[in-house]
Amino acid sequence: MVVTADMLVEDIDFRLDWTTPELLGHKALAVSLSDIAAMGADPKWAMISLAVSSEIWRSDFVDEFYRGWFRLAEQFQVELVGGDISRTSAGIVIDSIVGGDVRKGTAKIRAGAVAGDAIFVSGCLGGAAGGLRLLESGTGYSSDDSRNMALIERQLAPYPRVVLGKRLNAGSGVTAMIDLSDGISSDLAHICEASGVGAMINASMLPADESLEVLGVGPDEILQMALNGGEDFELLFTVDEKKLSGADLAGCTRIGSITASIGRVELISGGETSLLPARGYRHF
Amino acid sequence: MVVTADMLVEDIDFRLDWTTPELLGHKALAVSLSDIAAMGADPKWAMISLAVSSEIWRSDFVDEFYRGWFRLAEQFQVELVGGDISRTSAGIVIDSIVGGDVRKGTAKIRAGAVAGDAIFVSGCLGGAAGGLRLLESGTGYSSDDSRNMALIERQLAPYPRVVLGKRLNAGSGVTAMIDLSDGISSDLAHICEASGVGAMINASMLPADESLEVLGVGPDEILQMALNGGEDFELLFTVDEKKLSGADLAGCTRIGSITASIGRVELISGGETSLLPARGYRHF
What we know:
globular
């Protein structure tokens, strides 16, 4: 059994004027499912602890929150088994807990990467950060530009890579895995720290979200969003080089290799190699 | 497996000027262990999600909170397996999650009581409410009157009845069980509602906390505290009358019987029988 908890705090982790209660219910579950996916496990049950003000309690918020939550839960046959409701004087706090099953000894963790392993990422990067930028600039969830909406949905309604995580775990080559919640520069550093290795990634190989073009920013800024933008909830994982040929890596992109330089995460960009600082999300 | 979550919100569920971070860590775990105890289960693992301000993060709060948490966890060999840390702009929110084991099909729940069952409660009642009253009146945790401290400790450092819960579950007579978090008048109503039965309890049989004398209030007020005071975290349970003679009920007091009057909780007091309204704690 594996289990995970994620706490979301109003005005720190989400803003009610940017999202809807239904999307928030979706996201609360999605971030925890993403953790389960990163372990290669199968989500089975969940709990929600919710603290809201009396005003929110009397509104439709809770019903709509659960509607969004259940819609996603049904897709993965996740059963709500409990939780708690508390009152706050102001502000909403959500704790999302998900438990899952994985065959004993096969759960993927951050430790396990060794020098020479290939580094892969699923999907594309920076979209959630792009969506956040749009929301900050006043472009709302109901934007009629589809590329705007693609980015905003990456931010407000991330889709957890549960199916991919299980498929990767069923193969034999994955040595370490994490979900991209803070941003690659931070999350890759987490893998390196836990595994006692280093990493070298190539800027030109990073699959930046194509919708980021709508922001009208230059390639350097798009690169920064792909490297440091949090909440993409894609999977970042390492694969034993010798088992690469037999691995089913559809939908994933190789972005570099694990090195023996303990704790050093390096970026090759424009022919130059530089140290990549962890600039992803930090709570404190 | 059984699992439970309890969310504690600053200035709603606790006040920092009344307690210490260590006692708060103890209580956060204790309330969840109490839930596990009420199911007759064996607590095994736990998670803590904590949302605090930057100011609290920079203080000793988190270290001391965990010190109190671990001291209680060690007593029951409960392992911390995860959790989350989030930031708030102000105020502390704690979500305490505990998982436990129980032999399949034997977990005790609120449903299961039938007419004729005896109603029992462990320990004594109203102490936590008495402690709350002292704290509200300005008597602090460092009071030098031992009866004051007994009440205040009932409020700030409740002790979960894990050993008793497992012992009761190992016997064969318990039909329904709940822990007293809201107060008997509410928690007994929860059992009656879930079981589709009624209850009749006798005021003279209620084991009011003897330390309540220190408050200098009359017997009626002590009765109200025993009936409606929350957070005693004792076990309230029903026992099949035919299995009473074989049950090990040491430390527990019979307070009445389950009836067939669906949803009616009645109180016999001074020779009169009246309907007992659920006046325990309500979040909203």
